[in-house]
Amino acid sequence: MRRVVLLGGGYVTLHAYHQLARRLSGQLRRDEVEIVIVSADASHSFHGFTGEVVAGVLPFERTRTPITEACPRARFEHARVLSVDPGRRSVAFERVDGSTASVTYDQLVVGTGGREPVHGVPGLAEHGFLLRGPGEIETLAARVVSFAAGHGETVVVAGGGLAGVELAAAIADSGHARPQPLTVHLVHSGSELLGELRSAQPRLGTRAEAELARLGVRVRLGVRLERVTPSGAALSDGSFLPARTVLGTIGQRPVALPGLESGLRDGRGRLVTASDLSVLPGVWAAGDAARVLHVTTGEPVASNALWAMKAGAHAGANAARALHGRETRPFTYRGLGQAASFGLGRGIAELYGMPFTGRLAWLLRLTFFLRFMPSRRRAALVVHDLVRVSVRGADRSVQQQSSPRLGDPRLELLRSPRPFVHEQHPVLGGVHAPYDVGDLAVGQV
Ligand SMILES: Cc1cc2nc3c(=O)[nH]c(=O)nc-3n(C[C@H](O)[C@H](O)[C@H](O)COP(=O)(O)OP(=O)(O)OC[C@H]3O[C@@H](n4cnc5c(N)ncnc54)[C@H](O)[C@@H]3O)c2cc1C
Q: For residues 419 and 128, is the Cβ–Cβ distance under 8 A?
């Protein structure tokens, strides 16, 4: 039997899977081909609504789709990839129970994404909050809910890209309904927020600043997060911000996979892809793990969900073509835009180069996110939740309602006095290579 192996459980894998399942439908039915997914996370995380989850507007579960539900015709291995051997065409992995195994492939799609470059900021992994690892968004949301029980909180968000701006706004917005004071600092090493978006759409950058000011977010430009301690954030200008919650949205660095390292990556650690998204014969890459060049500008495309979905689908289609011995095709998608939200009904969006603000921008963002959610049922529930919240106001206990049940290993992570760090995770522990700080900002659909 021939086999296509997909690494990771993110946007790349889901969209590659759908192409493969459609194009190889007959062979799958006749057991001539097998699709195997190896992922450290058993569910796909829809990151677009992270702000809403953290602000208590949506329960965390709305953004999670089990991979076995999204990819029913694949064999799923809940496991961490240990290495890839392109010569033997095999992938070694470690399952959650600690057992190790390997699987051979005819075609391999790498969609293992990236992680925050924590090694550049001492203390961030131990004392700070991150967003890209399994359970991390839920842990942050639980912390924000816990503010209701305190006397006042200070939060430091590091990173002035779209993710940092949106998260700072969401956390500040979550404090409005509460009597306890909440101070949110947004710290950014650059001279202005939203650098890339601002250079293309200065009006949207100005609007984002106005929204942050409306929400009372204190913006500090030209300073870098240097160190995180249990009591706060040390900054590059020598100042110290006392805070129980320090969130790092400091860009991302692709996950390192031994065997796919030397000569195959660029300076940012991304797998260098050819125009058809191949890396090596039988190996394809897309999303945050890959350097994919834009067909017209020749520049690397942004690391965001839209590009991960489109390139993931293309890699899957080409893997199917290669399996059939057919000619592969170049990736020619041209892009759509980006957007951010600043609370219900307020947003900024760029669509095909056109700027939008306010309610229309928010609705455009919502429409695209709902369209791209992997589960129709969860998309419908999101609409239901948003309508409920806009009528009755946010129920800040939604994360508590959706907290893990007894026996769920994540419960221990939530109980822990320290936030979840990837080294503690049963599956992802130790997969991350040394990182540099401040390379890629997170973009948005
Ligand atoms: C908080 C946040 C908010 C965001 N908001 C937006 C937004 O609004 N709009 C937008 O367009 N983009 C947004 N992004 C960016 C977007 O989520 C990423 O660009 C996108 O997820 C990349 O998709 P991917 O498939 O490459 O990787 P991911 O979706 O990150 O998936 C990677 C997968 O690989 C798995 N994995 C990693 N290492 C291993 C290993 N060694 N073995 C096995 N599995 C492994 C992970 O568990 C995960 O399942 C956001 C990102 C974050 C963190």
A: yes
Nearest-atom index, ligand 1, CA of 14: 25
What tens digit of pLDDT does each residue of 103-149 get?
Answer: 999 999 999 999 999 999 999 999 999 999 888 999 999 999 998 88
Outline where 176-270 has alpha helix (H): 195-200, 202-214
Q: Are 68 and 50 in contact (CB under 8 A)?
A: no
CATH 3.50.50.60 fits 2-115+253-323, yes or no: yes
Nearest CA to ligand 1 atom 27: 113
* CB 9 less than 6 A from any atom of ligand 1: yes
Domain spanning 118-249+336-363+395-424: CATH 3.50.50.100? yes
- For 77, the 3-state DSSP assignment is strand
The domain ranges of the chain are: 2-115+253-323, 118-249+336-363+395-424
Q: What is the pLDDT of residues 209-237, one digit of tens each?
A: 999 999 999 999 999 999 999 999 999 99
> Which residue owns the Cα nearest ligand 1 atom 10?
444
The verdict on the CB of residue 112 being under 6 Å from ligand 1 is yes
> Cβ(304) to ligand 1 under 6 A?
yes
Edge-first strand listing for the sheet containing 240-242: 225-229, 232-235, 240-242
Q: Is the pLDDT of residue 278 over 50?
A: yes
145-149, 281-285, 410-414: least confidently modelled range:
410-414
